[in-house]
Request: fold
Amino acid sequence: MSHPSHPDGLDGFRKVQRLAYACAEAVAAQLRPGVTEREAARMMREWLRERGVRDWFHLPFAWFGDRTAFTGFKVPLQFFPTQRRLEPGMPFILDVAPIHRGFTADIGYSGCLGLNPVHDRLLADLREHRELILREVRERRPLRAIYQDVDRLMVRQGYANRHRAYPFGVIAHKVDRVRERRWAPRIAGFGAQSLRGLAKDALHGHRDGWSPLWSPYRMSDHPPRPGLWAVEPHLGFRGTGAKFEEILVVTDTDAYWLDDELPHVERWKEAGLTV
Reply:
């Protein structure tokens, strides 16, 4: 479904989101047995730098094997890329969040080196989550209640919720425009400007009863807040994890996914799953 250009520059967000997914697809196509998470993350960083990216919501992450399901993750440092090497049949997730011309994207790309039926099943089952999230945001259900409905759907499908392992257990966070700067400082892999923007939102939101982090906690007990949300339902089954991450546009009266021509959506169409 196409949507008219938005005064807030939706085209700019759509372009950077497509750039981020193009990066993930290009790097995924180059992955071979023996490549480490750090090497994959560096490949993404270099690919985007060559195309003019100078600032980041966060630097690229890559997770291989059981790290795609955040197995044993207890502290935030475990999210950062390691020397884990890719092996045949192994799932991987590439997560990259560039800022380009002041527009932010944050995407998650799930793939597999060779055949892995469990991974295929996880990817197919993510489609229902994309539909449920959009439907319930349109119904203006509280974000916390939608989070719980996503949880229930996962349990019904036989999976574990892995986005709960993220800091604050978030399934989504707000994204905004960022002023372009020649020098973009970072704090623990996150762009300082983006963190400042989130902190400002958190401050205003706290006062007005909403949060820029979509979590299972009371701070998300409010209707969907208009703006752009990077949404990432993350399924886990034993040592295999899969997710997508893309921007959901929320207006005062409606909601829609920013772009329906993304790799996971195309994959569902090719498999004959209605989207």
Remarks:
- Confidence is low (pLDDT under 50) at residues 1-7.
- DSSP finds six helices and 14 strands in the chain.
